Each structure stands twice: as structure tokens, then as C-alpha cells.
Amino acid sequence: MIHSKQLLKETHKQTGIEGEATVIEYLKNSGYQIHACNYRYHGGEIDIIAQRGDIISFVEVKTRKTQYLEHLSAVITPTKQRKIIRTAQHYLLRHQHTAVVLRFDVALVEYKNSITTISYFPNAFSASE
After folding, report:
1. Can you tell me the distance from the alpha carbon of 125 to that of 78, in angstroms, rounded to the nearest whole number?
2. What's the total number of domains in the chain?
3. I need a labelling partner for 77 at 20 to 30 A (CA). Which of 58, 84, 106, 113 fits?
4. Whole-angstrom Cα distance, residue 80 to residue 45?
5. What CATH code is carried by the domain that includes residue 96?
6. pTM summary value
7. What is d(CA 27, CA 106) in angstroms, rounded to the nearest whole number?
């Protein structure tokens, strides 16, 4: 028997997976090459690592089936930012890239009434914050 909390968690996870797939397609259509998805290190995770030209983007994806009302800083908290930055540093130590620009981007995906909306924020936060 599946409990309602477990079902809700599985539904939420599936929504997140769909959102990430939507952003991957968006990035590919925008000329990015995808290097990694769901890269993890010590409690941190980067949803998508992509490169276009000399820019490597570490992309955090947030997906909702309801309208976003929060400010971007409420969606990606300072604690979450630190975890993403630490994970990005680990990734860069492990992988050689020719990129000279590193960016931390956020993609907000909203599914509402069969319409998908992507709000993409390049340089949403920096490693120096």
C-alpha cells in the first residue's frame, strides 16, 4: 500500500525530473552542450552543468505546477547557493574545461493548464556572495 506522503513525494520528484528535462531541451536549443546532470558532492547537487562557448553554467532547476510567487532569493536560499558553489568547485577540480567564464544560473519551470513556461536567470548568484 502506498501512503499519501510517499505518493506526494514521488509525484513531486517526477515533476522535478520533467522540469529538468524541459530545461535540458531549452539549453540544447540555445546552443549549450550538456556535460552533467544531477552532479552530487557532499550534500550538494547541481541539476545541470552545461557549456556554450567559453561559459560553463551550473544550473539549478525549480519546477512548480502552480505559479511562482516567491522572489528568486526565496527559491534559492543562501544555504542552497553555498552547497551549489561547493559542488561546482568539486566538479571543476575533477573535470578539465576550457571555459573561462563560470556562471550560476537558475531556471524556473511552471506547468499550468498544459502550458510550460521557463524563466531563465543567468548569473542568478555568484560564488563571491
Report:
1. 9
2. 1
3. 113
4. 9
5. 3.40.1350.10
6. 0.86
7. 12
Smallest CA-to-CA distance from 59 within 84, 93, 89, 42 is with: 84
Tell me the pLDDT tens digit for each residue of 37-83: 999 998 899 999 999 999 999 999 998 876 655 666 677 889 999 99
DSSP state of 67: -
Q: Decide if 49 contacts 39 (C-beta within 8 A).
A: yes
Kind plus residue range of the DSSP H or E element containing 86: helix 78-94
pLDDT in tens, 26-36: 999 999 999 99
Q: Write out the residue range of the structural domain in which residue 29 sits.
A: 4-125
Strands 55-64, 101-112: pairing kind: parallel
